[in-house]
Design a protein that fits this description.
By secondary structure, the chain is an all-alpha fold. The protein has 2 domains: 4-45; 62-119, no CATH class. It is built from 5 helices and no strands. The protein has helices spanning 4-14, 17-34, 62-72, 82-95, 99-119. Helices cover 61% and strands 0% of the residues.
Length: 123
């Protein structure tokens, strides 16, 4: 059976970057609570990767854009954006919105969530 530290490491590796930050913040809280004045963990130690540079092709479909943006922003928890992206896609289909406009809005959603993750406003 694996040690508790090994198990924790395995679980940690399976988490999104945002959830890893949450775990680090909680660990910092516990460390500070159990031994005041000791050196606590810093959430700044976790490096959030830069988005992958994937060029937007001309006349990209909404579905292709979602796939591209998911690869570009692989570090994001897509479930956090599910409501905004699915509402946008559904509305665009019902209103027959130009795909270019929808893709622009999807890019802004992903960019915004990435900025929040980098600034520590996740969750």
């Amino acid at each position: 059976m694996a040690s508790a530290e090994q198990q924790l490491t395995e679980f940690f590796r399976q988490l999104t970057a945002a959830d890893q930050l949450t775990i680090l913040a909680f660990a910092e809280f516990l460390a500070a609570r159990s031994s005041p004045g000791s050196m606590a963990l810093s959430t700044e130690a976790l490096v959030i990767p830069e988005p992958e540079a994937i060029e937007r092709p001309p006349r990209e479909s909404v579905v292709a854009a979602l796939k591209r943006l998911s690869k570009t922003y692989h570090m994001l928890d897509k479930t956090e954006m599910l409501g905004a992206t699915s509402d946008l896609v559904a509305t665009s289909i019902m209103q027959r919105t130009d795909a270019v406009i929808v893709v622009d809005e999807l890019e802004e959603i992903f960019r915004s969530h990435y900025k929040k993750l980098k600034s520590g406003e996740h969750g």
